[in-house]
Amino acid sequence: MKNSFGKSGLDARSDSFAPVPVGHTEVIHALAHLVQAMIPLANSLQSDEFSVEERKQFRTFAGDNVFELSTSLNRLCSETARKVYSNKK
Question: What is the pTM of this model?
């Protein structure tokens, strides 16, 4: 199944929605804003408002990026978590 981007899974490394921030401060601010924006969307999608099929559709559109994002965000929870998750590679 192809998503609205014409792919069978969105590969964030090849599809660009906005210029990639260059400086460290820009990266920090950009990621913080994206995380804040994702929380209510993720909470809504995981609620009973959405069906099992709709959540399955989301996972199809997002592909393995959901797991990659989850691991990356877990690493950012603390320096201890970063070390623990980094050693599992």
Answer: 0.66
